[in-house]
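WARN retry 2 of 3 for item q-0093 after timeout on previous attempt; input resubmitted unchanged.
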Amino acid sequence: MRAMAAIHIRNVPEQLIAALKRHAKRNGRSLNAEVVEALKEHDERERRTADLRRQLEEIRREWRIPSDLPTPEEMIRAGREERDRRIAGDL
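OK item q-0093 returned
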């Protein structure tokens, strides 16, 4: 059987510890098992995000979308800023 690695985490906020303990109790796990599960879920989200970014890049290349177009994030940010300017002007 392969030995498992151990990590020690310092300076964890008390509120986070309390939340992890609540989650562990609700899920019928030890605090350690809950933290391991949270780390696994984080890793899986990161992998899915990376896969999605690769797929979007493939679509961009396939559709020959110019790389200098604003990103969706930039377009959303610009829309919010425009909305905020309109609201501020209406006051």
